[in-house]
Amino acid sequence: ILLLYGIPEENGYIDKNWFLYMKRLFFTLLLPVVLLCCCDKESSVAVQLSSFTDTGCGRENVTTKSWDDWNPTMTLRDTPDGLVITHYDAVLNCSIVNGGIGCDFSIEGNVVKLRTYEKDGDFLKCICPVDEMSATVTGLSIGTEYVLEYTCGSTKYVPIDFYYRKGLDMVIDLDLYSY
User: Fold this and answer.
1) Which of 87, 57, 95, 93 is nearest to 71 (CA)?
2) How sure is the predictor about 136, in pLDDT bands with cuts at 50, 70 and 90?
3) Dihedrals phi, psi of 34, to nearest 5 degrees
4) The Cα angle at residue 85 between residues 173 and 102, in degrees rounded to 5
5) What's the number of CA atoms in the CB half-sphere (13 Å) around residue 25?
6) What are phi and psi of 42, to 5 degrees?
7) Residues 6+ apart with CB under 8 A from 17
8) What pLDDT, on a 0 to 100 scale, did the predictor assign at position 11?
9) Spatial distance between the Cα atoms of 119 and 64, rounded to a whole number of angstroms
10) How far apart are CA 135 and CA 55, in angstroms?
């Protein structure tokens, strides 16, 4: 601009208004560039456990389902609510009849730690089949690799690697992952 128009002078002095105008123009044009470069494209949402549900002790239904049909599996599914981690055919101590089932969740880097347990610490000499336990985790980043460290009661499973993507629908045979 200076080359085209030169610096306006008045009686041999540089016009101060022209410099103020150019300064405003410069910062006005610079602002959108700074905003585009500096703003995070994804809103940062805290990763958290948003819900946990379970079917409770299925002791009453043991007669309709034999232990031969019991197949502990896990699914990892992307839903509009977040990642839903579901454990089918779990086995916990009978103390869940009185105390219920608890769920702890944490994340360290890309390691998702999920632990389901008997809330009542008094262990009884019996086991309870649980048809289904589901935990919904929100805030995970699409397009990221994670490791799931899962523990159910006293059973710890080998860490499970997964790539979180839209439409994720992964089925895991937990018999292959138990220690």
Assistant:
1) 87
2) very high
3) -65, -45
4) 105
5) 7
6) -100, 140
7) none
8) 59
9) 27
10) 12
